[in-house]
Amino acid sequence: MMEFLAMGGYALYVWPAYGAALLVLGSLTVNAVLRYRSAERELASLNARRPGGAR
Amino acid sequence: MHRFANPARFMRVSGTVLPWLAALTALMLVAGLVLGFRAPPDYQQGDTVRIMFIHVPAAWMAVFGYSSLALASAAALIWRHPLAEIAAQQSAPLGAGFTALCLITGSLWGAPMWGTWWVWDARLTSVLVLFFLYLGYIALVHAFDDPSRGSRAASVLALVGSVNVPIIHYSVEWWSTLHQPASVMRLGGPTIDRSILLPLLVMALAFTLLFIVLLLIRMRAALLERKIRALRLLEAEAAGTEYGFAAPEVSA
Lengths: 55, 252
Known about the structure:
The complex is a heterodimer of chains A (55) and B (252). By secondary structure, chain A is mostly helical.
């Protein structure tokens, strides 16, 4: 396990690279999903307020 | 392609496809990570070769993202189709993200293998220009009070900037660079050993799927936001008439 984490002495370069990937791709994903959900919620509340009802 | 260009149909089709695509993306990401960490270390570069499984797919997505941004911009300019405009605008931040990831991981790979975090060679510089093109496009979209002017101007920038794509690709052949030439997408086939080519290709597939999934989610969100704006406008108009603001001649 320690050997795996050490990455042949390059741990300081390999792990930050994977960390950067997690950070960049993770935040793009979270941002997209949250934005879609909030738009969906807002649209639902707007539709509920309209006299004509849904659609 | 044209059959999917109707926003209502786009919402329907993308809604059914998305869960499957997302599941496949997760599966490919896990497979890519497992294969990547099980691959043997390179005989010269040791374990730093694992940075490649992030760096190279990110670079491919940076260029793929810009190519689709330019194509969608062309379609938006020529046919004035709202979905093309939305596709272009929603792909830009994704492309910028992958480009940033490519630059960061490249730097982390360059430090131990080249002995430097950064050099102003043709490949690195042209990718940095790509990153700024993405940022410029995003800034220009929002730079005008009239959104249609902003998106028109940004589409033109995207098309002009597409000259950078072949420059990035051929930079390692045209100029003497510290960056190595292509070893996968080259005539005569890849020169990488199978044991590290397979994780690389799986990771590239995973990144491509992730790009598509995120683009679809963002496009769906943008379409919903457009609908919300239209409904708000309707509400405001209705409220205006109710209080007599919309009909000035009554005020006498």
